[in-house]
Write the C-alpha coordinates for this entry.
Amino acid sequence: MNNLSIYLKEVDTIKGIQIIELDSIGSKTNGYLSFFEGENELGFNIERVYFIYGVPKDVVRGGHAHKSLKQYIWCPYGSVKLILDNGESRKSIFLDSPNKGVIIKGVIWRELFWVKEDSIICVAASDIYSDEDYLKDYSSFKKYILKGRKYE
Ligand code: TYD
Protein backbone atom coordinates (compact mmCIF):
# COMPACT_ATOMS: atom_id res chain seq x y z
CA MET A 1 0.00 0.00 0.00
CA ASN A 2 1.35 3.46 -0.81
CA ASN A 3 2.47 6.16 1.65
CA LEU A 4 3.20 3.76 4.50
CA SER A 5 6.14 4.82 6.61
CA ILE A 6 9.27 2.74 7.11
CA TYR A 7 8.27 2.42 10.77
CA LEU A 8 5.29 0.24 10.08
CA LYS A 9 4.59 -2.87 8.10
CA GLU A 10 1.28 -3.70 6.48
CA VAL A 11 0.40 -7.27 7.39
CA ASP A 12 -3.00 -7.59 5.75
CA THR A 13 -5.62 -5.52 3.99
CA ILE A 14 -9.18 -5.53 2.72
CA LYS A 15 -10.79 -2.64 0.87
CA GLY A 16 -10.86 0.38 3.20
CA ILE A 17 -8.74 -1.25 5.93
CA GLN A 18 -5.03 -1.72 6.57
CA ILE A 19 -3.79 -3.99 9.34
CA ILE A 20 -0.37 -2.86 10.46
CA GLU A 21 2.47 -3.62 12.83
CA LEU A 22 4.49 -0.73 14.16
CA ASP A 23 8.23 -1.08 14.62
CA SER A 24 9.22 -2.00 18.18
CA ILE A 25 12.30 -0.14 19.34
CA GLY A 26 14.12 -1.67 22.32
CA SER A 27 14.88 -5.07 23.80
CA LYS A 28 13.48 -7.79 26.04
CA THR A 29 15.64 -6.45 28.88
CA ASN A 30 14.39 -2.84 28.85
CA GLY A 31 11.10 -3.11 27.03
CA TYR A 32 9.91 -1.55 23.80
CA LEU A 33 8.73 1.73 22.33
CA SER A 34 6.48 2.06 19.30
CA PHE A 35 5.12 5.24 17.77
CA PHE A 36 3.11 6.68 14.94
CA GLU A 37 2.73 10.13 13.50
CA GLY A 38 -0.50 11.34 11.92
CA GLU A 39 0.10 12.30 8.33
CA ASN A 40 3.43 10.46 8.07
CA GLU A 41 2.34 7.04 9.26
CA LEU A 42 -1.44 7.01 9.16
CA GLY A 43 -2.03 9.26 6.18
CA PHE A 44 -4.30 11.66 8.08
CA ASN A 45 -3.92 14.30 10.76
CA ILE A 46 -5.08 13.31 14.25
CA GLU A 47 -7.76 15.65 15.63
CA ARG A 48 -9.02 13.46 18.47
CA VAL A 49 -7.87 10.56 20.63
CA TYR A 50 -10.28 8.50 22.71
CA PHE A 51 -10.02 5.28 24.68
CA ILE A 52 -12.38 2.66 26.05
CA TYR A 53 -11.61 0.90 29.34
CA GLY A 54 -13.16 -0.93 32.29
CA VAL A 55 -15.08 -3.23 29.93
CA PRO A 56 -16.05 -6.70 31.28
CA LYS A 57 -15.13 -9.82 29.27
CA ASP A 58 -17.48 -10.80 26.41
CA VAL A 59 -19.02 -7.33 26.06
CA VAL A 60 -19.53 -6.20 22.45
CA ARG A 61 -19.20 -2.50 21.64
CA GLY A 62 -19.25 -0.52 18.42
CA GLY A 63 -21.95 -1.59 16.01
CA HIS A 64 -21.67 1.37 13.67
CA ALA A 65 -19.78 2.78 10.69
CA HIS A 66 -18.52 6.28 9.92
CA LYS A 67 -19.28 8.24 6.78
CA SER A 68 -15.98 10.10 6.54
CA LEU A 69 -14.00 9.67 9.77
CA LYS A 70 -10.64 7.94 9.48
CA GLN A 71 -9.30 6.06 12.47
CA TYR A 72 -6.35 4.11 13.78
CA ILE A 73 -7.46 1.55 16.38
CA TRP A 74 -5.09 -0.34 18.67
CA CYS A 75 -5.14 -2.23 21.94
CA PRO A 76 -2.27 -1.17 24.23
CA TYR A 77 -3.32 -3.70 26.88
CA GLY A 78 -5.29 -6.95 26.63
CA SER A 79 -7.07 -8.60 23.75
CA VAL A 80 -10.04 -7.39 21.71
CA LYS A 81 -11.54 -9.01 18.61
CA LEU A 82 -12.37 -6.44 15.98
CA ILE A 83 -14.97 -7.42 13.41
CA LEU A 84 -14.77 -5.30 10.27
CA ASP A 85 -17.22 -5.35 7.39
CA ASN A 86 -16.80 -3.30 4.22
CA GLY A 87 -20.16 -4.37 2.80
CA GLU A 88 -18.51 -6.99 0.58
CA SER A 89 -16.47 -9.02 3.04
CA ARG A 90 -16.18 -9.39 6.78
CA LYS A 91 -12.93 -9.87 8.67
CA SER A 92 -12.03 -10.65 12.30
CA ILE A 93 -8.81 -9.27 13.67
CA PHE A 94 -7.42 -9.98 17.12
CA LEU A 95 -5.85 -6.87 18.58
CA ASP A 96 -3.66 -8.62 21.13
CA SER A 97 -0.36 -6.83 20.89
CA PRO A 98 0.32 -3.11 21.60
CA ASN A 99 2.19 -2.56 18.32
CA LYS A 100 -0.56 -4.04 16.16
CA GLY A 101 -3.45 -1.95 14.88
CA VAL A 102 -5.88 -1.18 12.12
CA ILE A 103 -6.14 1.91 9.95
CA ILE A 104 -9.71 2.40 8.76
CA LYS A 105 -10.21 4.86 5.94
CA GLY A 106 -13.31 3.49 4.27
CA VAL A 107 -16.94 3.27 5.32
CA ILE A 108 -16.58 0.15 7.46
CA TRP A 109 -19.02 -1.45 9.86
CA ARG A 110 -17.16 -2.35 13.08
CA GLU A 111 -17.85 -4.34 16.22
CA LEU A 112 -15.48 -4.79 19.14
CA PHE A 113 -15.63 -7.93 21.25
CA TRP A 114 -13.83 -7.89 24.60
CA VAL A 115 -11.84 -11.16 24.70
CA LYS A 116 -10.07 -10.24 27.95
CA GLU A 117 -11.56 -8.25 30.81
CA ASP A 118 -10.10 -4.76 31.24
CA SER A 119 -8.55 -4.65 27.77
CA ILE A 120 -8.06 -1.09 26.62
CA ILE A 121 -8.93 0.20 23.16
CA CYS A 122 -7.40 3.43 21.90
CA VAL A 123 -8.49 5.32 18.80
CA ALA A 124 -6.70 8.13 16.97
CA ALA A 125 -9.29 9.85 14.77
CA SER A 126 -9.11 12.31 11.87
CA ASP A 127 -11.84 14.61 13.21
CA ILE A 128 -13.61 15.81 16.33
CA TYR A 129 -16.75 14.03 17.50
CA SER A 130 -19.79 14.36 15.27
CA ASP A 131 -22.99 12.40 15.77
CA GLU A 132 -23.94 13.06 12.11
CA ASP A 133 -20.92 11.10 10.90
CA TYR A 134 -22.29 7.84 12.42
CA LEU A 135 -24.25 5.15 10.55
CA LYS A 136 -25.84 3.49 13.54
CA ASP A 137 -27.62 0.51 12.05
CA TYR A 138 -26.48 -2.09 9.55
CA SER A 139 -29.23 -1.39 7.01
CA SER A 140 -28.43 2.33 6.82
CA PHE A 141 -24.73 1.41 6.45
CA LYS A 142 -25.56 -0.87 3.50
CA LYS A 143 -27.84 1.77 1.94
CA TYR A 144 -25.16 4.44 2.35
CA ILE A 145 -22.54 2.27 0.62
CA LEU A 146 -24.84 1.40 -2.27
CA LYS A 147 -25.84 5.04 -2.74
CA GLY A 148 -22.13 6.03 -2.73
CA ARG A 149 -21.27 3.46 -5.40
CA LYS A 150 -24.06 4.68 -7.66
CA TYR A 151 -22.38 8.12 -7.92
CA GLU A 152 -18.78 6.86 -8.21
P1 TYD B 1 -19.76 5.25 20.81
O1 TYD B 1 -18.99 5.78 19.65
O2 TYD B 1 -21.15 4.79 20.54
O3 TYD B 1 -18.90 4.07 21.48
P2 TYD B 1 -19.08 2.50 21.35
O4 TYD B 1 -19.45 2.24 19.95
O5 TYD B 1 -17.79 1.89 21.74
O6 TYD B 1 -20.14 2.12 22.32
O7 TYD B 1 -19.77 6.35 21.95
C1 TYD B 1 -20.35 6.12 23.22
C2 TYD B 1 -20.83 7.45 23.76
O8 TYD B 1 -19.76 8.37 23.92
C3 TYD B 1 -21.85 8.13 22.86
O9 TYD B 1 -22.87 8.70 23.71
C4 TYD B 1 -21.10 9.24 22.19
C5 TYD B 1 -20.01 9.57 23.18
N1 TYD B 1 -18.76 10.00 22.55
C6 TYD B 1 -18.35 11.32 22.65
O10 TYD B 1 -19.02 12.16 23.26
N2 TYD B 1 -17.16 11.69 22.08
C7 TYD B 1 -16.38 10.81 21.40
O11 TYD B 1 -15.29 11.18 20.90
C8 TYD B 1 -16.84 9.45 21.27
C9 TYD B 1 -16.03 8.44 20.50
C10 TYD B 1 -18.02 9.09 21.85
